[in-house]
């Protein structure tokens, strides 16, 4: 086992819901082994309040979570990413920046809870459901023997997780 902390970037077009949920959840679950970030190709400029409420309900720290562009993580002064996951289908189809350090990249699509219509309880339930799906995938990810897998095997495993349904 290594003392290395793995940097993980979650990408979604607007960086307001799914990628934010994944960032908060992995930072809580990662126990210092993982440091999560999130960004978007066309950030909305604000985080969906239901995403923040969901994270807080699950005991996640939301301090510093904000909607930001992915260019923030593509520059020479940015943290070097070990893993990058797109969590929405739109972001998966976009031309991404060239990421320094050749991180392992995979697509883990989740339905957008912010598109759910209804009262606050219905919308909050949609965010809670998405958080549950993301948590399941993150548990599988954090249990991988990352240190013992070569890059190609690791990418294969990450892509398999993307096809995993709970």
Automatic annotation (TrEMBL):
Keywords of this entry: Arsenical resistance
Record-annotated membrane-spanning stretches: none
Source organism, top-level taxon: Bacteria
UniProt cross-references to SMART domains, sorted A to Z: LMWPc
Domain Phosphotyrosine protein phosphatase I, residue spans: 6-144
GO biological process: response to arsenic-containing substance
UniProt-recorded name of the protein: Arsenate reductase
The organism of origin for this protein: Edaphobacter aggregans
């Amino acid at each position: 086992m290594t003392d290395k902390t793995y940097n993980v970037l979650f990408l979604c077009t607007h960086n307001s819901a799914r990628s934010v949920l994944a960032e908060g959840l992995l930072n809580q679950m990662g126990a210092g082994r993982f440091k999560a970030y999130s960004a978007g190709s066309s950030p909305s400029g604000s985080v969906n309040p239901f995403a923040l409420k969901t994270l807080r309900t699950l005991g996640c720290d939301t301090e510093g979570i904000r909607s930001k562009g992915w260019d923030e993580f593509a520059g020479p002064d940015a943290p070097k990413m070990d893993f990058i996951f797109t969590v929405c289908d739109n972001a998966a189809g976009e031309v991404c920046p060239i990421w320094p350090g050749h991180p392992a990249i995979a697509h883990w699509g989740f339905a957008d809870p912010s598109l759910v219509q209804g009262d606050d309880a219905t919308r909050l339930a949609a965010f809670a459901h998405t958080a549950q799906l993301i948590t399941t995938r993150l548990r599988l990810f954090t249990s991988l023997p990352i240190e013992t897998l070569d890059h190609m095997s690791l990418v294969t495993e990450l892509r398999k997780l993307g096809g995993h349904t709970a």
